[in-house]
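Session log. Operator J.P. requested a structure for one protein chain; no other inputs attached. Running the standard single-chain path with C-alpha cell output.
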Amino acid sequence: MTDPRIERLADLVVNYSLELTEDQVFRIDGFAIAEPLALAIYRAALRAGARPYTNLSLDGLAEILVAEGSDDQITYLSPVQWAEIEELDALVTIWSETNTKSFTRSDETKHGALIAAQRKLSNRRWERIAKGELRWCGTLHPTHAHAQDAAMSLADYEAFFFGACHTDKDDPASHWQEVSHTLQARADDLASVQELRIVGPGTDLRVGVGGRTWIPADGRYNMPDGEVFTSPVETETEGEIRYTFPAIFQGREVEDVRLRFAGGSVVAAESSRGQAYLRQLLDLDAGARILGEVAFGLNYEIDRFTRNILLDEKIGGTMHLALGAAFQQAGGKNSSALHWDMICDLREEGEVYADGELVWKAGQFLEAAPVAVAAARG
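Structure written below.
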C-alpha cells in the first residue's frame, strides 16, 4: 500500500510546484532509493497529460568516477546532458541517498573538479528558469540515511518531513497558496532596503541589497519551502559572520566557520574542523568568495538542524548566506561553480537591521506580514 503522504507530495510537486500541463517534456531525477516517490510523481505527471521520463541513477557511480576516473573523465559532460537541459519543459530532482557521507574520504581535488563540472549544467538550468523556459523543483524522499543524519528514527523523520511539506494533510496546496501570499508580502517589504546589517554571536555583517529583487520561496523551487531570498550586491559585503551550525557541502562537514568580508569578498576564513576543504572551495574559482544569496528562513515547522540543506536553510528564525553562484532572477551577477549555503542561527541573540532600523530580533520579524506565516500553517 502506497503511503498517502507520498501520493500527496507527488501531486503537490506536479500540480502546484511545477504546474505541469499537457504535452510538456518532464524528467524525474534521483537515485533508485527514491523509487516510491519517483513512481508517484510519474503517475501524477501522466494524469496531468505531460510526457514524463525518469533518470534514476545507481548509488556509487559518482564515487567510482572520482576514485578511478582521469581528470578528463571526471570533468566530461555528455552532449546528451546538454541537449536534454535545452529540451526539457520541467524537471524534478529527488535528493534521496543511501549514504550521505560517501565522499568523506575521497580525493578533495578530484571531487571539487566533479562539483565544478556538474555546476555548469546547474547554471544553465538556472538560466533557463530565469527566462521562464524551464520549471524545476527539488524535493526529497525520506530514507534511513537522512533520518540518521537528523538523529531520528525513520518513522519520526517521515512525520517531520511530511509535516514540513504539509502533505500529512488532505489539501497541502491550499496551505502553500496562503504561505505564498505571506512570503510575497514580506518580499515586498524588503524591496526598498539598501543594506542589511546582521548581528549575532561572532557576527556583525553588512550586506548590500539595493536594487536587487527579493523572491518568495513558496514551494515552487523546493518542497518543503519557506524563505525569502535575494542575491546581494557583489561588492558590498563587509564584516564578519560566524556559522554555529556545521556548513555541509556534498556530504562533507566544516564546523564553526568564521568568515571576514571586505569589498564584497572573503578575505579571511577559519573553521574548527575541515579547514582544508573550506579553503579548497573558497579557491574553486573567482566567484567562490563572493555572496550569491542572503535569505531569511521562515518555516517555523522546521525547528531543528537535520544536516540536509533542503530543510535546514528554511529553519524558522535563521538566516542563510550562500557563497558562490547568484540568482539572475534576483538581479545577481556573480558566477561560480560553487553555491554553498551556510546557516546562521539567530533564534536566541540575533538581530537584523534594514537601513539602520531593527526589523528582526531573536528569529522573528518585529512587524508581522499582512498574513502571518504561523496562521497560514494553522
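Operator note: The chain is about 35% helix and 25% strand.
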